[in-house]
Amino acid sequence: MAYADQQMSGNKITALIIVAILHVVVGYALVTGLAYEAIKKVKEVTSAVNIEEEKPPEEPPPPPPPKEDTPPPPIVAPPPPISFNAPAPQVQTVNEAPAIPAPPAPVALPAPPAAPPPPRFTPKAATPKGNPGNWATSNDYPSRALREEREGTTGFRVTVGPDGKVTDCQITRSSGSPDLDEATCSNVRRRARFAPAMDGEGNPTTGSYSNSIRWVIPKD
């Protein structure tokens, strides 16, 4: 039994060594095959890609030499610098006086008329003769105005002829009662007498006279 066990143990070890050697051989073959395939692929890629080197750009040809007959271009001098520091022009304001129109030509005026000679006599207005208060009395009071107890003052103006008599009578201020106004002019025409007006030659002339009559109801 011991011999058989030892023989079996030796066979196991031998088998294990063989198996290990086989693994090494297979691993080496795999690694070697893979490396070969990788190198092959690299070669194929390298042969497929054609890398061309970039050529440097060509230099342009030099310009032709100038002809001897062509004259050189003229030399133009630059313009002189312009100075902007010139003084500003002075502006003078001249006040022109307005044109004064010529005065109008004098016009000869006609000579004033000669003054009339002074009168030899001082003119006079017509003046009443006697007392003007007697021209209308209480007896001349209109009966209707007396019954109605109407009173008032009537102003009048009369025209006196050269003979001193009244030629016209006008009411200048009414008393408010037509019958009192009418009685005023009627009595003045009938009773008034005047010294006629006198002109500058001392001759009687037409004149005028103004006054008023106050109508008052008499008291007993």
Automatic annotation (TrEMBL):
Chain spans, region Disordered: 50-182, 195-220
Single GO MF annotation: energy transducer activity
Membrane-spanning segments: 13-36
Top-level taxon: Bacteria
Membrane topology: Single-pass membrane protein
Location, primary (coarse class): membrane
A Gene Ontology term for the protein's cellular component: plasma membrane protein complex
Alphabetical list of NCBIfam families matching this protein: tonB_Cterm
The family this protein is said to belong to: Belongs to the TonB family.
Protein name, UniProt field: Outer membrane transport energization protein TonB
Protein's organism: Novosphingobium aromaticivorans (strain ATCC 700278 / DSM 12444 / CCUG 56034 / CIP 105152 / NBRC 16084 / F199)
